[in-house]
Design a protein that fits this description.
Number of domains: 3
Number of strands: 17
Helix content: 40-55%
Number of helices: 25
Strand content: 15-25%
Distance between the termini: 84 Å
Largest sheet: 7 strands, antiparallel
Shape: elongated
Radius of gyration: 31 Å
Length: about 675
């Protein structure tokens, strides 16, 4: 085989490998892409994309994101559909294109091997795969960053092409388009531009001693001009952007810098679906490869290092990659923007991390090649491949969690809607204690007649609870979805009113959403039952009376029970109250457990002889029509789970009090 034939064979194999990498990237981003529900922000994307262009722009002006992503999604959904998979496939496509650009950037900055290695690493990187399956603007943001970075690399380093005006301006147009699109996609994009500017300056000046000054000046002038043009294209939105950014009142997150940095690095390397204690191996491995990629050049191992071959200052190219990888992270801290929810903007850092990691792999391969010069196989390629596969193997648990572990699933509004719809009644009300929940919920429930979003950050208690009073006056069951409560209702006024005026029957966490169910008592008044007032739980908690109505209880009803308590001593321990509904000799079919008054009045906060009304409800989701079920009340120690003994006139009667029997109706 001639040398030319061997070259063509290697080149063909190279393109086959690149095609395989792109197929892997596509497969990982499409696998189970619709398995999870749309979550809070994705629902917002889905509903905004349904609007006209004018309404999309108007809606974006009232949000915190520019409108480009929503406009593109509008036309994308027209072709690929409005299903979860259809909406998310835009991000998947952007993710695959970014993998292709990782190859181009690695090839033009270093060589084909590094480009191929970087593309493979980005194809399987958990952080990139995660946001390649989310109907939000972060995968498009990373694509814009990748395209503009590749264009700058060509402008800064390819002198031969720079002499051709057509090529120069074609790359300039790529940079302008990608940068303008990035600005119109996400307000974090200026961090990318700052990193690119510093990297561009380093790359260009490093060639000053080998290029005529005119080319250096011309390159920097083209960069400055194209940046100004890109920013000018974004200028119409600048006044809105300033208002949005300065008016976005989100409380800062307090953190320990070392812990926050470690968490951010963990996110970049293994994504959000692997706990820190399981991320040590990939973190150490990536850190070591990054260090090798930065600290060594290939000339040390008998290979032609790209920068030395071009006559540049050594190590400038890897240093430029470090800037692209970590300056946006540093700026997040410098501007006080570190917050768990904002780490996703660092998706733009994953590609340069993959570039430098792949370079470290290649340098180790060069070292191995010098040790086994007479090997009949390409040791360098084998070592690079082994390291890439070994690193990707450490990412398998993170990807497995993404696909299969419900603990890491997105907030499941689909399941919540199905849960409520499984026993829907005309007089149910579904209340959202956070903005934009209405949008994602109506993606799954098109009829919004019983959906009530509450005001964001209420400023006055009396005004805040007026909508709740109106809703409770005309609806029997209230399903309340709490999300981001610290931001949405900082003083907790909504929940305070509900706990004091309705009967809380159920509460569960579904991801980051807390679903609570209340009975308003509209159709089920709770008249007094003349009950023995000399009942004591433990030595000092007295049940003065209770209100309930055990007649006309249907399956699916919320049975309201109001308990009137007082204690004649100061209580030191925290106790929980339980209500069980079920047969005398079997497990309950429904129950309610929790601290008094919806958890806002734990027993140590009770004043001596203070009378408290503890409103509770039991959601009868079990049993069948005709069942006669006992209703029991008890108290237990929150720490030990030990039930308190119950006394009637000083005589022990067990550890739960039967207050009646409810016969379930159809």
């Amino acid at each position: 085989m001639t040398q030319a034939q061997r070259f063509r064979t290697r080149l063909s194999l190279h393109w086959i490998l690149l095609g395989s990498v792109l197929l892997v990237a596509t497969a990982l981003r499409l696998y189970k892409i619709d398995a999870q529900s749309l979550w809070y922000d994705e629902g917002n994307s889905a509903r905004i994309a349904e609007r006209t262009l004018a309404l999309i722009i108007a809606g974006a002006a009232g949000d915190i994101h520019p409108p480009l992503y929503y406009i593109v999604l509008k036309y994308w959904r027209a072709v690929f559909g409005a299903s979860e998979a259809g909406l998310r496939s835009l991000s998947a496509a952007c993710g695959v294109l970014t993998v292709g650009l990782a190859y181009l950037a690695g090839r033009d900055l270093f060589n084909r091997r590094v480009g191929l290695g970087a593309a493979f690493l980005l194809a399987v990187a958990p952080f990139a795969v995660y946001y390649g399956q989310e109907a939000r603007m972060y995968a498009p943001l990373a694509l814009c960053a990748a395209a503009s970075t590749w264009a700058l690399i060509r402008l800064a380093l390819d002198r031969a092409q720079l002499e051709s005006g057509l090529w120069q301006w074609s790359m300039a147009l790529v940079y302008i388009a990608a940068t303008a699109a990035g600005l119109w996609t996400q307000f974090a994009y200026p961090f990318v531009m700052l990193a690119q500017g510093l990297a561009m300056l380093l790359l260009t000046l490093s060639r000053a001693r080998i290029s005529p000054r005119v080319f250096v000046v011309k390159t920097l002038a083209v960069y400055a001009l194209t940046s100004l043009v890109a920013m000018a294209l974004f200028a119409p939105w600048v006044p809105i952007a300033i208002r949005q950014i300065t008016g976005w009142g989100v409380a800062p997150q307090h953190f320990v810098l070392s812990d926050a940095l470690l968490d951010a690095l963990r996110t970049l390397v293994v994504g959000r679906t692997l706990p820190l204690d399981q991320a040590a191996v990939p973190l150490i491995l990536v850190g070591a490869l990054l260090s090798v990629g930065l600290a060594f050049d290939r000339a040390r191992f008998g290979q032609a290092d790209e920068s030395r071959r071009a006559g540049e200052v050594p190590f400038v190219r890897p240093l430029a990659v470090v800037i692209l990888a970590f300056l946006p992270l540093g700026l997040l801290f410098v501007f006080g923007l570190y917050r768990d929810a904002y780490l996703k903007v660092l998706l733009v850092c994953v590609l340069p991390i993959c570039l430098l990691t792949a370079r470290g792999m290649e340098i180790i391969g060069d070292w191995a090649g010098t040790r086994f010069r007479r090997s009949p196989v390409d040791i360098r390629a084998g070592v690079l491949s082994a390291l890439a596969l070994g690193l990707s193997a450490t990412w398998v648990p993170s990807l497995n969690n993404l696909y299969n572990n419900p603990s890491y699933a997105r907030d499941d509004y689909r399941a919540i809607q199905r849960l409520i719809a499984s026993d829907a009644r005309p007089d149910d009300a579904i209340i959202f204690v956070a903005p934009n929940q209405w949008e994602v919920f109506t993606y799954y429930q098109k009829d919004d007649h019983n959906l009530f979003p509450l005001g964001y950050k209420p400023q006055d208690y009396a005004q805040a609870v007026k909508p709740l009073e109106t809703i409770a006056a005309s609806h029997t069951r209230l399903f309340v979805l709490y999300f981001a409560e610290r931001d949405a209702d900082p003083d907790g006024w909504y929940e305070q009113w509900l706990n004091s005026n309705t009967n809380k029957a159920h509460e569960q966490w579904i991801g980051n959403i807390r679903l609570a169910v209340y009975a308003s008592g509209v159709r089920n008044p709770v008249p007094w039952i003349d009950h023995d007032s000399q009942i004591t739980f433990g030595p000092s908690i007295h049940l003065d009376n209770l209100m309930t109505n055990l007649s006309h209880v249907h399956v699916g009803d919320v049975l309201p029970i109001n308990l009137i308590w007082h204690s004649d001593v100061t209580l030191q321990r925290r106790y929980k109250v339980f209500i069980h509904v079920g047969p005398d000799d079997g497990p309950p079919v429904a129950q309610n457990d929790g601290e008094p008054v919806g958890g806002i009045r734990p027993t140590p906060t009770w004043n001596i002889n203070e009378t408290l009304t503890d409103r509770r409800g039991v959601w009868i989701r079990g049993g069948k029509a005709g069942d006669a079920l006992g209703v029991y009340v008890g108290i237990y120690d929150a720490e030990t789970a030990q039930r308190l003994p119950i006394f009637r006139r000083g005589q022990a009667i067990g550890d739960r009090l039967k207050i009646g029997v409810a016969t379930l109706l159809p």
